[in-house]
Amino acid sequence: MNGRHDEGPPEHGGGLSHDLPVLARRKMIRLMAGASLVPLVGCTSEGETPAAPSSSSTGCAEIPEETAGPYPGDGSNGVNVLKESGVVRSDITRSFGDSAGGTADGVPLTITLTVVDAASGCGTPKRGAAVYVWHCDREGAYSLYSEGVADENYLRGVQETDEKGRVTFRSVFPGCYPGRWPHVHFEVYGSLADATAATSVTNTSQLAFPEDVCAAVYATDGYGASVRNLSGLSPADDGIFSDGHDHQLAAMKGNAGDGYTAALTVPV
User: Fold this and answer.
1) How many angstroms separate the first and last alpha carbons of the chain?
2) CA 251, CA 223: separation in Å to the nearest integer?
3) Are 48 and 262 in contact (CB under 8 A)?
4) Which of 103, 199, 203, 205 lies 20 to 30 Å from 40, alpha-carbon distance?
5) pLDDT tens-digit readout, 218-265
6) What is the pTM of this model?
């Protein structure tokens, strides 16, 4: 795992000092498990369905490994939502279980991730794997952690990959908080049983959004803070994406009025 650090929203108590111990714990777990630390690639282009990453004689490389940040909700930093009944779902806009029962508002977003086998040249879908996704809400807050939404668990969910290696989540477009380019976190597990037991995560990464899509979304009602936070920011200024985010850039379709679909191929 690399040493880059995900700074959470400062107003919600995140940041480098919070994230360093989280990174250290997760790095040790990966090393003990013998997880791959190969330099990584993926493949998408805006407006198109993501193509399989290019292969070589040794097979294609994995999706870039990133920090889960200070708000994963997977048990590695406090609360564990993965063991709660109801976390396996496609619609993550609402809270579930014993939460406060809130709903996240914003421009509709459908997230489709296609998990493929890197060792086989990325041509073989990973059927029966599982993906956990989470991201901030329109205001830049993370459920389970941030002030005002600590009793919510929306914008978090798990899905098992189908025969094409795909998972699909219905969500809302995340806001932009200070210092971070708009993104979605995800973890890949070998099976649904592993995911709901919160054990044996194989890959942790982040999906990035194109700037023009972010600008269009943030021009709509409710995203006022994101307009300010995105202004003057670029992926090069982001501690996660500053060394390159091309292979984590979602292919987008749609518009701010009707909603967007974000697609990304995830070699593991």
Assistant:
1) 14
2) 22
3) no
4) 199
5) 999 999 999 999 999 999 999 999 999 989 999 999 999 999 999 999
6) 0.82
